[in-house]
Amino acid sequence: RKIKKSRSGEDKGPMSSPYEAPEMLLGSPKHTMETDVWAMGCLLAHLLLRRPPFTHRDRESMMRAICKVAGTPSKKQFRDLTRFPYYGQIKGEKKYKRNIERMFHMDENDRRTYQGAIDLISEMLKMDPKERISASQALNHPYMAEFVSNSDSTLFRRHFVEDWMSLKGSVMGDAKRKDDEMREHEKGIKRKAMLLAATSAAPSEVGTDDLYNVDDILNITSSFPKKRKS
Predict the structure, then answer these.
(1) Three-state SS at 5
(2) Burial of 37: CB neighbours in 10 Å, binned 0-12, 13-18, 19+
(3) Angle CA(41)–CA(35)–CA(148) in degrees, nearest 5?
């Protein structure tokens, strides 16, 4: 597919996804199979990290974040690099060494468990699209082969369900928490409106009994006449 362009001539498509490949951020007009491999690598990293590996608002900061992990590409490593229209944005950037494992802060047990997945992600997140592992090669990667062979195991299935429910609970929990906060906020507004309506009624209707005066709750100036001391 081709990226849509704004009236100013600058394409806005790349920043719509945290999984966008470097070539798209650099201004490539074509979305290729290699671009999808990068996106799948980011998605797999997202599952391990429980957050997108690269999230930034603008093209330049997004590319910098990618370079810190996947390494700053050179002309020798990425032969088509200088052909992209936004190459100038990273031309003078600091040179970072490639270190995919830098993304994953794990203890030794987790690292041993997910080392195969990290190796696969490393093959998918290559700066040069031509150097990335293909989709068919990814499916035949030792990690995927082991995953398929273990899928018949009851223990493996149990762990898979536990991991999936944990991830789902984390994602859904955040969404539910936001919904609950919004509901409580709306209830508070309605409650305050009802109390305000009660206090704004004419004194002749509600009398001058302090029972109806809730100004201290609403933090407003009282509209009720004060009782004179006898």
Answers:
(1) strand
(2) buried
(3) 40
Structure tokens at 208: 């001058």
Give the tokens for residue 212. 């109806």
Distance CA 143, CA 137 (A): 11
Q: What is the CA radius of gyration of the chain?
A: 29
Calpha distance 165→87 (Å, rounded): 42
Residues facing 5 on adjacent strands: 11
Q: How far apart are CA 230 and CA 220, in angstroms?
A: 27
Write out pLDDT tens, residues 191-225: 767 766 665 554 445 454 554 455 555 555 555 45
pLDDT digits (tens, 9 = 90+) for 59-93: 888 988 998 999 888 777 777 787 888 887 777 67
Question: Hey, what are 3's tokens?
Answer: 């990226």
